[in-house]
# Entry
Amino acid sequence: MEHIVILGGGYAGLLCAQELRKHVSSSDAEITLVNKHAYHQLITQLHETAVGARPDRSLRLSLSKLLEGKNVEIVKGTVSAILPDERLVELQDGRTITYDKLVVALGSETEYFGIAGMKEHAFTLKSVNQARLIRAHIESCFARYLYERDPALLRFVVGGAGFSGIELVGELADALPQFALEAGISMDQVELYNIEAAPGILPGFDKDLVDAAQTSLTSRGVRFMTGAAITQVEPGRVTVKTGEVIETHTVIWTGGVRGNQLVVDAGFETEPRGRAKVNEYLQSVSHPDVYIIGDACFVIGEEGRPLPPTAQLAWQMGIASGKNITNELRGAALEPFKPNILGALASLGRKDAVGKVFKSYKMYGKMAYMAKEASQMRYLAKIGAMFHSS
Ligand code: NAD
# Structure
């Protein structure tokens, strides 16, 4: 019997496991899913949890419930090495797992661009636990201010104004007044900065959508610094290329992502930012017996540009790889992966968003926000999680 091992229980890995079990019975293949936690994380909504707008338990969905009755063995463990030539995976606790077919769906890592002190002193927002840490930290800044009267405690900085940065800034703009109110502090003393290296926010996005986002966020007190690359982060301050220094105890870094180091270390062929090069079937170009999907891989889209590392594509790649492994087991032809980019919507806090759906239809405000919520509901329905939590 074949042993299929899936590394990672995120959008790509979970959907791959679910898709496989639609077609492959447990007498034909054993399926093991390895994940760091016993839960699947809805990381597209971390910005809400980071400010306390959504409880963290609603972002953690039990993998055993999502895969209930599907005969998938869930191994809770952290992958420390992949040895493709030996068809072996090593876990941090010393366990090893052998496989016949491997799917690597380990996601991306934060790109620090070698910025001095960024890794050591900035928060990142890539997991539910990090979101909890940020929320607790913000609360403590307000509480400490009452005793220490250090204005830097009430100055919050988000580095990067891509989708992740803008969504977080939007949530902070809506939530900080509540934190201030609870601490009995005037909002006049609170400052929220978004620092972006490019000349404008949401680089590459349509100008009218960018303008709408900027107007909405500025009206809620966000101070944008654009054309201002962060060059250094130290305890209590952040420095930008222009030489300007902002005194703060809170820098949250959303400046970019890169591939997974485990993929690089395993010897899979990668592009310079560590994402695995894959063929049209999502198999590693250097090791075609291994599928590498989601943020961990690098795929050129129809327009000749790399596909963005988004949840919707990870989800689609999970299904596509599940189908192709099924085809392999049946001796059928493999199907090329056909991405279907349904749109891009950036929330701007509670009840506001901007975005584009169905290629060119632009949406603003509450409508855009509702469209984003609807896409989240669609995902939950797809994975059978409407009424689940961890
Ligand atoms: P990103 O790479 O898209 O944006 C990072 C931003 O940080 C860029 O604008 C970059 O210019 C800026 N930056 C880099 N170095 C800097 C520096 N030294 N100082 C200041 N700014 C600096 O990363 P992201 O926002 O995390 O998004 C990653 C991917 O995930 C993208 O493809 C994005 O579209 C996707 N995403 C989508 C959604 C959504 O659909 N709602 C939400 C989040 C992320």
